[in-house]
Specification:
heterodimer, A: alpha/beta, Rossmann fold, four-stranded antiparallel sheet, 9 helices, 24% strand, globular, B: mainly alpha, 2 domains, 0% strand
Chain lengths: 253, 563
């Protein structure tokens, strides 16, 4: 469903945010994209959805090249960014109606889906209000509903659980499972090891722009013995967090 | 506020506002986009080179007239007053945007600062920002007049200090009005619009009232003898001309007085400025925070979403272009700074024409608009090409085309993410701008009908001509914005009024109209006005045909680039 070949993104003259990254995500799987802050997760995702232009490499979604068949490729995606990008001065319902128009969702379908999805995420009470009055979590939910409105085959979710309340986070995980059960695909980034462990069929670990590992959690654990996933992650990404001393923080002057 | 804290805060805000660090990085370290400062310097040099002789001629004439009356310093006071009025008008929307809708406010409000401290810094920022008016309109007359009349130390010192503080009083006056007003306007969910609307009405009302009061007694009721007597005493002229803005009288006394008298008036001027500033601080501490916080009071009505609500809100399927077109209107109309600037830009010029035209007596008056109208009446045979150009002036100054991408700001990411083509985005935006621009030619046609009683068919043809020319100019302005959009603004006012693309487009508009008038003037002896009109039409049609595909492909290339 998603094919990434030798993807590289260079910022400025020589800062490689993503370095020769190749991976493919099959239909019917949830792929977790892990990495510390600044590892290149969001840059990769922005290239997948066409927000950034790769310096090198290619990207295709359902066989459609995002650079050459941009619109056809985008129609297959439901994208939720890490920070919701929404028009703040319009009503939530107006925003969803706009998105439905853009994706060509039929009248009947959009009414049905807005009703159901807003009920799932408990946003019915806010849809008639101006978006600028929403909390961060509510904006995140609106962004999610907008992304799911046109029944996309591939969900691309950048840190989707950040800002969601526990119930909504639980529901989203359930929806992700349900989505792939029907032959669709989910690609999402997260910092939360526990989520990755519980939800993902496969994961990829990116660090300093390079893809260090792709495979199942079990495969990753096998290579590192009995350690927890968090410890494995820290080891793979070369983190020195476990050895750090923070006693100076509370030391008296 | 401790001095170093104030300096640090002001410097940080100035740095953020003007992007000093970013520009240093871009121009000096990365050495890219160097054409921008070069172009700016080029435009400034060209403007100085072309306008200086005209400005000097105007100054010479004014100095000669006022020297005859033994009051040459009136020239300084006159330009001071003009700059203040400009500051007054231009500063209003800026004040409201910076005080209440700036994106840095949530951060500043969360810091341990008094509301007055936040506003003092913001006022410094606005005053520095407004100083370009005084730089253009007051600095040159001040230096030139000083040299011409051999101004004493009183002139140079007072003139310089008044120049430096010239934008303070207008901004402080408006702040003093707006702050209490912001506490009164506290009803309804559209309080941001109300704040803009009521403030504009209030300040325009004050200006209109002041002008009305000043003009009473000057409205042609004076006999010739009385008028002669009036002019014999220059003090009459000083008080009559400057009473619309009393600080201009103090400025005149300060630059014309000698010794202690000059210092006394200068003292009064500075005292009022400082007093105004202190009063602003007092009002800020009293009103500002409450008003700002109230503007943030947005909450869910918890009304629920029924089937009927859904059916009412989601009524029809639209094509992507229509959906984008509606998005464009919503975005434009629901952001007060965009709506007020957009409508203001296309309505101000024709409405002024209509107002002056409807009082036909003004034609005989000596003021500049009256002169223009008198001039127009003589050019009635040329109404077709001239009407077209007047329509172009009225509608072309929309500032919407030169900021069509800039106004998106961070929202441009949304446009990039959704599955729509550059052509669809262009079509929606182009149509929105065209509809708005048409307000100019329509009102200009009405104005011309009232003023010179132009034939209806000529006006219809002139309207069509204007529309085509405006479309052509809009396309050029859109290309300018595609080449250098200003996307990282922190308040919407900045996207329109402080966007250099607007300056480029105004230059383009006046250049186009000026060139057409110049060519028309040179060929008037042998070229029929209808031929002139047809040529104008041909140029704009050709321009449109060439620029449509170029604009779409430029936008497409731009949307493929990283933001």
């Amino acid at each position: 469903m998603l094919d990434i070949k030798r993807l590289t993104k260079v910022y400025g003259k020589n800062f490689k945010a993503v370095d020769d990254l190749s991976l493919s995500v099959k239909k019917g799987e949830i792929f977790g994209f892990l990495g510390p802050n600044g590892a290149g997760k969001t840059t990769t995702i922005k290239m997948i959805v066409g927000l950034l232009k790769p310096t090198e490499g290619s990207l295709s979604i359902g066989g459609k090249d995002i650079l050459k068949e941009t619109i056809a490729a985008k129609l297959m995606i439901g994208y939720v960014p890490d920070e919701p990008i929404l028009m703040e001065k319009i009503k939530g319902i107006e925003y969803l109606d706009f998105i439905a128009d853009i994706y060509g969702v039929s009248l009947q379908k959009r009414r049905e889906r807005v009703e159901k999805l807003s009920a799932v995420f408990k946003l019915q009470n806010a849809l008639q209000d101006i978006v600028s009055g929403y909390s961060h979590g509510m904006k995140q939910k609106l962004s999610l509903i907008a992304a799911l409105l046109h029944q996309p085959e591939l969900w691309i979710l950048d840190e989707p659980l950040t800002g969601l309340d526990p119930e909504s986070a639980f529901l989203l995980k359930k929806m992700m499972r349900n989505h792939v059960k029907n032959g669709n695909t989910v690609f999402f980034s997260t910092h939360l090891m526990e989520i990755a462990e519980r939800v993902c069929d496969r994961i990829g670990i990116i660090h300093k722009g390079k893809l260090l590992f792709t495979g199942t959690i079990e495969e990753l654990k096998k290579t590192k013995g009995e350690a927890t996933l968090e410890q494995v992650f820290l080891e793979v990404t070369g983190s020195e967090a476990e050895q750090m001393d923070f006693s100076y923080l509370d030391a008296s002057e | 506020m401790r001095r170093n804290r104030w300096i640090s805060l002001t410097w940080t805000l100035l740095n953020e506002h003007y992007g000093f660090s970013r520009k240093r990085q871009r121009y000096l370290v990365e050495r890219r986009d160097l054409w921008e400062p070069i172009l700016l310097i080029g435009i400034a040099v060209a403007m100085i080179a072309t306008l200086s002789p005209l400005f000097k001629a105007l100054l010479d004439q004014m100095i000669a007239v006022y020297t005859q009356m033994n009051i040459p310093q009136m020239v300084y006071a006159y330009f001071f007053m003009i700059c203040s009025v400009f500051g007054f008008v231009i500063g209003l929307l800026m004040i409201i945007s910076v005080f209440f809708f700036s994106k840095d406010l949530p951060l500043l409000i969360s810091l341990p600062l008094k509301p007055g401290e936040v506003l003092a810094t913001k006022i410094s920022l606005i005053v520095i920002d407004q100083m370009w008016i005084s730089f253009i309109g007051l600095l040159f007359p001040y230096i030139y007049l000083g040299i011409r009349i051999g101004g004493g130390w009183e002139y140079w010192i007072s003139g310089f200090l008044i120049f430096l503080t010239s934008q303070m009083i207008p901004i402080l006056l408006e702040t003093i009005v707006i702050l209490p007003l912001s506490r009164i306007i506290r009803f309804g969910k559209h309080r941001d619009f109300l704040l803009f609307g009521v403030s504009v009405l209030f300040v325009v009302g004050i200006l209109a009232f002041n002008v009305l009061i000043t003009n009473r007694g000057m409205s042609g009721e004076l006999s010739e003898e009385a008028f002669k007597q009036f002019l014999e005493n220059p003090q009459n002229l000083i008080s009559k001309s400057l009473s619309v803005y009393p600080p201009a009288i103090w400025a005149y006394r300060a630059v014309s007085g000698k010794g202690i008298v000059s210092l006394g008036w200068l003292g009064l001027f500075l005292l009022v400025t400082v007093g105004g500033f202190l009063l602003t601080l007092f009002l800020s501490n009293r009103f500002y925070l409450a008003s700002y916080l109230e503007l943030q009071d947005k909450f869910s009505r918890k009304s629920g979403l029924t089937r009927a609500d859904l059916d009412r809100s989601i009524r029809r399927e639209r094509s992507p272009v229509l959906a984008l077109f509606i998005r464009e209107w919503r975005y434009f109309l629901r952001i007060p700074a965009f709506a007020f600037n957009g409508f203001g830009n296309v309505l101000v010029f024709p409405i002024l024409l209509i107002l002056y035209g409807s009082t036909r007596g003004a034609v005989e008056s000596q003021d500049s608009l009256g002169t223009i109208i008198g001039f127009l009446s003589n050019l009635k045979p040329y109404i077709l090409p001239l009407g077209t150009l007047i329509g172009v002036l009225a509608g072309g100054m929309n500032l919407l085309s030169s900021t069509f991408l800039s106004r998106e700001g961070g929202m441009l990411t949304e446009l990039k993410a959704i599955p729509v083509s550059a052509k669809d985005i262009f079509t929606a935006k182009y149509l929105h701008i065209l509809v708005m621009s048409e307000v100019g030619p329509v009102t200009a046609a009405i104005a011309l009908r009232i003023i010179v009683n132009a034939p209806l068919w000529d006006l219809v043809l002139a309207f069509i001509g204007s529309s085509l020319c405006i479309s052509f100019l809009n396309l050029i302005q859109m290309i300018i914005d595609i080449k250098r959009p200003m996307l990282d603004w922190d308040n919407p006012q900045k996207a329109m009024k402080q966007n250099l693309n607007g300056l480029f487009s105004v230059g383009l508009l006046f250049g186009f109209v000026g060139a057409c008038i110049g060519i028309g003037w040179m060929t008037r002896g042998f070229m029929n006005p209808v031929v002139m009109f047809l040529l104008l039409l041909a140029v704009s049609v050709a321009g449109n045909l060439v620029l449509f595909p170029i604009t779409v492909s430029s936008l497409d290339r731009f949307l493929q680039k990283d933001l």
